[in-house]
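INFO batch 0412 | record 1 of 1 | parsing
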Amino acid sequence: MKIELEASGVGELLVTIRTPHRVSQRDKAGTVYYTHEYGLPIGGQLSVTAQRWKGSGPVGCKITIDGRVVSENNSAGQAAVAICKP
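INFO prediction complete | emitting tokens
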């Protein structure tokens, strides 16, 4: 099973990625990608969150499993947050 997590936005973002093996949080500018392959179904243990923590503007997230988009969300404005879960 190939899983791709994406967080996007213009400017500075706080990105949180949760997988069965770890939780990571980082400040990034622009688009962040995380790709990993899993052999077992992972259910609700997977998510990606993009949050604007300075200024305003669009943010988005997307989860793709085996080439099929299973979750996509967009938000805009001051302190915008986009959360994706399969």
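INFO post-check: The chain has one domain: 2-84.
INFO record closed
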